[in-house]
Each structure stands twice: as structure tokens, then as C-alpha cells.
Design a protein that fits this description.
alpha/beta; Rossmann fold; DNA polymerase, domain 1; 2 domains; six-stranded parallel sheet; two-stranded antiparallel ribbon; 9 helices
Amino acid sequence: MSNNGFGVVVLDLDGTLVDSSEDIADAMNHALSAHGIGAVTAEQVAAALGGGPTILVEKCLTAAGLVTFGSDLVASVLNAYSDRYRAHPATHTRVFDTAGAVLPALHARGVLIGVCTNKRTAIAEAVLNAVGLSSVIGAVVGSDTTPTPKPQPGHLIDTVTALGAGDRRVLYVGDTDIDQQTAASAGVTYAQVAWGHPGVPAEHYLASFDDLLSIV
């Protein structure tokens, strides 16, 4: 175990571990087009991530120029988006920075690694498989497999429990204030990635995933 005593690293997925904005934008634009709504950019999608699929759809509808919309439209776009995204989860998705090397190195040290994401679990697992990280991830808990999704602390606690972490010390890595709030509420040390949202307070800041090799 490291000098810091972290035996567990849990990561957010979209915007932290992987850049999935292009694939999400493709699926979203397919759904929006089917409803006669204009397209959104990958940058607009990236800014809308973190709160789960329903909030993503709502933010994308706003970004596409809709001033008002009802829950029926949100549900219909969400269904079309989900179908498309499940069929094409990782055509363009890539891992950020050096995650592809660092996570296997931590796993080899005996560090438990989990993913706590507001993406739905099956799609998250498909993405992790596509980018070649499934073998080192011990638990994936999406927003559909916890009764208390982020920013509620139960989501992170459920992920740690699923890893069988016991009393090992946990580090949570994220990219948004939602991630920071989740860690703080759960009493877990938080690390913010440099490519995440600006101004998010954290105990550790990662200029690169390489920094985890000395922090953990």
C-alpha cells in the first residue's frame, strides 16, 4: 500500500476517465433529428455531462434552441438517444491522458479500481470494454443500479461496497462539482483532473493520470 494509504481508486467515467462526447453527440443528434430538432456540438454535450441521461437530454434540448419543452419530449428523445447509444457506445471514445497505462499499473499493485458514473451501467461497461479497461475495473455502478445517484453519497458508497473494499482508504477521481460534492458527502478524499471543469475544490489535482502513481 502507498504512503497515503489509498487502497481503492474510484473514478467518474465521462469527462474524467474517457472522452465520450463525440459518441454521445452522435447519438443525441440522431435522436434530435428524429424529432425535428437541430443538432448540438460535442463541446455542448461535454458541458452537459455529469448529471445523468435525463439532465443531459434537457441540457441538449436547451442547447439546440428550445426555450420550453415538456417531459414527454424529454422521455421520447431519451429513448431514441439511448437506443442509438447502446448500439454505438464507443466508436470514437478514447481514454484521457495516460489512463490506459496507469490503471493497469495500479491494479498490478493490488489497488482496487471502480467506476461510479451517472451513465447507465450496461453502457458504461460497454465503453470500458471498448477502451480495453474492463479487466482492471472491479466494479461499475451506474445511476440505474443505485437508489441514490450522484451527487448523493450513496452512489459512491455503493461502488466502494461493490469492490469489497473493507476499511481500505478511498480516493475518488472526478471532473465536476457533482463529483466533488459526492466525495465530500461520502467522506472520501477527492482528486480533480486538470481537463475537468475549472474551479472545483479538491484535496489533490491531477495534471496527468501519472500523478496517481505517486498519490496512491
